[in-house]
Structure formats: structure tokens, C-alpha cells
Amino acid sequence: MDALTAVVQGLPMTLWLTLAAFAIGIVGAVPLSLALTSPVAPVRWAARLLVDLIRGVPIIVWLFLLKFGIHVGTFKFDPVNAAIVGLGVVSIAYLAEIYRGGIQAVPRGQLEASKALGLSGATTFFGVVIPQAFRIVSPSIATYLVGLLKDSSIASTIIVAEMVFQSQSFARQHPTVEGILPYVIVGIIYIVLSLPVAFLSRRLDARMRKAIFV
Amino acid sequence: MNWLEQWASYMPQMLSGLGVSLFIAAVSIVIGYPLGLLLSVMVQRRNLVIRTLGLAIVEIGRGAPALVILYLVYYGLPKFGIAFESIQAACIALVWNAAAYSSEIIRAGLQSVPRGQTEAAQVLGLSSRDIFFRVIMPQGMRSAIPGLMGVAIQMFQGTSLAYAIAVPELMKSAYNIGSQDFNYLQIFTLAGICYAAISMPATWITVYFEKRLSRHA
């Protein structure tokens, strides 16, 4: 088996980890970002502390904590689930921070105008703030997705058979010069995978800029 | 024994691991940031060879996961007879990472300096070296400070990946302790606290600088 085939074997797992964790993050970050922008100070502080704590601990620690540390009755995480939950939790914190930035970047005048028009709080939030905030944060979300794709490689340390894990096992079986190939190939695959996301986000960004400022 | 007592008994070993983590992070910053400055100048050069080389180093350093670069240096290069000790390999990989990320931040900082500054300096008859080092850099680096602090925190957290090549840093210390008495929950919680105890205050200081700089902008 050649190096490329070996590495690509791990591609579906890499994509699965990335997308599953991203899905958890996209949804889970909504309530947390609301807490971060809450008018109630203690709620805001608690959310801030939680976000900073989650982001302050490296991903590998979260993965090991879930994989080896959680042991409730007969329940234990298998490596894939530990990786998805770990990457998902970290995504929640990072995306909540991105959402918060977007919500707060919507000009105050928009809220005042909504109030003057007699819109309800819910309509103001979902109909006025969210659509604008989404435009502001979509490039950051795309950047985060690329980062998450790369971070999914850390799952190889808890024996999830994604691309880096497959590269490792190929390199172990080929102690010759050929053994460097999987690392080069896997690096290229990550870069190639991140290109379309970066391209899309740049186009989205350009379109949305037009939509807002013209 | 309760958790606190156990944690206290683990601390000496954890602290020596933390020392190694901080050392690798310091090396990656002290060597990586000047290289980042160099790369940021390279990618702005008209010379195609210099620019392409700079871009390649930056794009690989940012585009490939740190873990892949780490493995490439530690497991890949020895196949060509270039072997490093694990801690050296970790330093090289993170220097590359730090240089690539910081170069983008520094480039953005340098480009944020208004063109008029260069023009004014030229009119005043400053040499191009003086223009770069005494006019553009001091102003450009100022706006790059929060970003560079962010990368420093990222590098500190990134040292945890060196666990994967058996560098005796914090994560490795934690794992060794854990595999002795199987208190994985306790020991990895303690490891998390050690990382957070440094990352969280560092983040708050970064946010403070960000706010201060944006106030004057």
C-alpha cells in the first residue's frame, strides 16, 4: 500500500470528527453567547469564566480527561466519542466568543431604531440583530472551522484512526526514506482541505460587505 | 487521601513538567517572533523567489496542524539522517508555528502604518533602513502586540502536543503520574488547572491591551 492510500484512509474520520464537533459547537454556542451578552452581570461573569476556562486548557488535556478520566459505573468514552465531545466542547467556547463579538458589533442605533418602530424584544433580536451579526461573524466562523479541522489531528493521540494516526502507522511500517512521505502528504491534504473554506469565506465576506455597506 | 492532598503530592513532578513546557514556549517565541518579522518582510518583497519561499514557509506553518509538523521533524527528518532529540524537535516545530502565525500578525501591523509615514520619512531624507526600523516598525509593532500575545498563549498551549513525542513536559508528567495509580480524572484535572492558571490571566492581560490600544486608535 502506498503512502497516499494509507493517509486517505483516515480522511473520512477526520471529516467526521471536524463536522460533528462543529455541529455541536454551532448549536451549543448559542445559549452561551446569550449568557455572555446577558444584562444580568453574574450570568455574564459565570459565562465569561466558563469560556475562558475551556479555552485556557489545551485540547489534548480535554481529550485525555474524557477518554481516561470519565468512568461512571460501566460508562466509558470510546476514543471517537471522546474526541467529538472534547472538540465539541472547545468549539462551543470559541464559537460563543465569536457570536458575542458579532452581537456586540451590531450598531446601537439598530436597537434604538427597532425600539422606536415598536418591535418586540424577540423580533428585534431575531429579525434585526441576528441577521446582521451573522454577516459580521461568518468569516470568523469559517476561520474557526479550518482551525478545528487541524485540531482534529489531536484525536490521534487518543488512538482515533484519523489521517495523522494513519500517517503514523504507515511511517512505523516503513523505516526507510519512504517513511517521511505520509507526513508530507497529510500536511498537504490539510492545506488543500482548508483552501475551499478560505475561498468561500472570502467570497461570502465580499458579498456581505456589499450587502451591509451599500 | 482527598484530592487536594493528592494534588499536593503530585505538584513537584507537575511543576518540573510545567518548567519544560514554559521553556519550549519561551524558545518558540524568542526565536519564532524575529523569524516572523523576517518572513513578513519576505512575503512583501518584489523578488519572486524570496516572496515564494516566504509564502511557502508561512502557509505550511499555518496550514498544517502543529502535530503534523512535530511528527515531520521528529519522525520524518531522521529518515534522511537528520535526527533531533525530542525536546529539540518540539522547539523546532513550535518555532516554525510561531514564526508563521506571528508573521501574518506583524505583516498586518506593518501594513496598518499609513503610507504617508514612509513618504514623509523619504522626504526627510531617511535611509530605507532607518525608515523601516525607526519609523514603520515602532508604529506597526504597536498594533501587533495583542495579536502576538495571543500567539504566545497559543504556543504555550501548543507545547502540550510535545507529549506525543515523549518530551517530559506537563502533559507527559501528568500521564506518567496517572499510569502509576490510575487516578486519571484527578491528574488530568490538575493538568488542566496548571495550563489554565497561566493561560487565563494571560488572556485577560491580552484583552486589557487590546482595549487600551483600540482606545487610542
List the defining traits of the structure above.
heterodimer; A: 214 residues; mainly alpha; MetI-like fold; two-stranded antiparallel ribbon; 9 helices; 2 strands; B: 217 residues; flat
Question: How is this fold's topology laid out?
Answer:
The complex is a heterodimer of chains A (214) and B (217).
Chain A: H1 3-8, H2 11-36, H3 41-56, H4 59-69, E1 71-72, E2 75-76, H5 79-105, H6 108-116, H7 121-151, H8 163-173, H9 181-213
Antiparallel strand pairs in A: 1-2
Chain B: H1 3-42, H2 48-63, H3 66-76, H4 86-111, H5 115-123, H6 128-158, H7 170-181, H8 184-216
Uncertain runs of chain B are none
Q: Biggest interface: chains and residue counts?
A: A-B, 38 and 39 residues
Globally, the shape of chain B reads: flat
Helix and strand succession of chain B? HHHHHHHH
Architecture of chain B in CATH? Orthogonal Bundle
Backbone structural class of chain B: mainly alpha
Question: Runs of chain A with pLDDT <50, length 5+?
Answer: none
Supply Rg of chain A.
21 Å
CATH homologous superfamily caption of chain B? MetI-like
Q: What percent strand of chain A?
A: under 5%
> How far apart, in Å, are the first and last alpha carbons of chain B?
55 Å
Number-wise, the strands of chain A total 2
Q: What's the assembly state of these chains? A: heterodimer
Query: What fold name goes in the CATH topology slot of chain B?
Result: MetI-like fold
The coarse silhouette of chain A is: flat
Secondary-structure content class of chain A:
mainly alpha
Task: Tell me how many strands of chain B there are.
Answer: 0
Number of helices of chain B: 8
